[in-house]
Design goal:
This protein is about 70% helix and about 0% strand. It is an all-alpha fold.
Length: about 190
């Protein structure tokens, strides 16, 4: 009788340990898959410009992931170019403001694109002060976000959006927040 109880306990403990090991193995595999899907390509540039402009690295990676999926030659239907999908006119304005006066053809260069995409994010953050509004402005334009913030229909306090009237922009903000969560979990949390 005692031997059966001991054997039963050993089997139960073995099953529990095996379950825990399987769970840990599954999590390791899942994280490895996520790391492939959410890479940290161009890390040398991201680290430098994220630090220089005070933008969290995971935000820069998330924008690159959502905008171009790390394809430096990407061009959108609207004409946005490169890793961070900057519009050529926005880029020319940013470079002029930064004293460089670069040609929009340099948008295909990963370092230049990351530098000015990150700089633009920092400028939007200075203007709006919250990342959701920054993301909405990055997608729909800062003037649109200003209009939405002024409307009681979309913002009760005039500082944060309660509702985003453009469905594309609303989806974009959600995608960026999801990418942020994944990047933080994979690379920035202990």
């Amino acid at each position: 009788m005692k031997n059966k109880a001991v054997m039963r306990s050993i089997v139960i403990i073995s099953i529990l340990l095996l379950s825990i090991l399987c769970g840990l193995l599954f999590q390791l595999i899942w994280d490895a898959v996520d790391r492939v899907n959410y890479p940290q390509d161009y890390s040398d540039f991201v680290e430098v410009y994220a630090y220089k402009y005070g933008v969290p690295e995971y935000v820069v990676y998330s924008v690159i992931k959502v905008e171009s999926n790390f394809e430096s030659g990407a061009v959108s239907e609207a004409g946005a170019v490169g890793l961070m999908q900057l519009m050529p006119e926005t880029f020319v304005w940013l470079t002029t403001e930064n004293g460089e006066n670069l040609n929009s053809a340099t948008l295909y260069d990963p370092e230049t694109n990351i530098k000015y995409g990150t700089y633009y994010l920092s400028q939007l953050y200075l203007r709006f002060g919250t990342w959701d509004e920054v993301y909405a402005a990055y997608n729909a334009g800062p003037t649109k976000v200003d209009e939405w913030l002024e409307s009681k229909e979309y913002s009760e306090n005039g500082k944060t959006l309660d509702e985003i009237p453009y469905k594309e922009t609303e989806k974009y903000v959600k995608k960026l927040n999801k990418a942020n969560d994944i990047y933080k979990k994979l690379y920035y949390e202990d």
